Amino acid sequence: xxxxxxxxSFLIAVLGRGDRNAVIDLLAGHADHMKPPxxxxxxxxxxxxxxxxxxAKAEAVLFQCQLFAMQFVLLRPLTSVALVxxxxxxxxxxxxxxxxxxxxxxxxxxxxxxxxxLVKFYxxxxxxxxxxxxxxxxxCIKGVVFMTFWQRMVITLIASTALENRFEDDxxxxxxxxxxxxxxxxxxxxxxxxxHCYVFPVExxxxxxxPKQHKSNIVxxxxxxxFAKDLKYIMKSRKARKRALNKMNxxxxxxxxxxxxxxxxxxxxxxxxxx
Length: 275
Known about the structure:
By secondary structure, this protein is mainly alpha-helical. The chain is built from eight helices and no strands.
């Protein structure tokens, strides 16, 4: 949750160089195709109020995007505590009669709201942030969230359906889910740590930085293309050597057959002379 909010703050800081008013002025320039902020319990008044004031509209949209991301930060610890308490008090099935069912739905709704604020802000300023290539950065953040939350739901679904007969009781099933999730996250976070080195390069923040026309990627740096090319060459060379060896063996067999035929013919000729 905090990762999502800090990423939004990162985009705002990059866009305005630390100046929030600069971000608002920039958003005001996109007011023509900017949707008004949603109505939210009286905190924001959507619609006509901002039609004649682009800057007020931009400030309200920015505030709402931050609010959408921040609610997840504030709500997630509460839902985590609620899940711990619910798991201790209710150990039965996780259907609609269990408190865990509703807590998970609240978490899902909170995640959806947080990402809707982040995506809305990104769509408004994607051209202005094009120089720092924000989309791969967004995918990394989205990937971390997916691997730490949605993946667990998929594992839980698999354990409750395809592998249901494998477990003796519900406790063993939950332990397997936790072990599988922890094992996969350890591997995935290593991959994400490597990917972050390429999507968040330090040279982007140097004073004389200029976007490159062709950026190196992890495939180029690990020389995977060269490895694949060499592997293809080796496999072709191996096949060529095998074909050459087979041809050589056939020639040897043919030569041996001719030699034997000559010996046999000589013996027949000698035997005919003796007769």
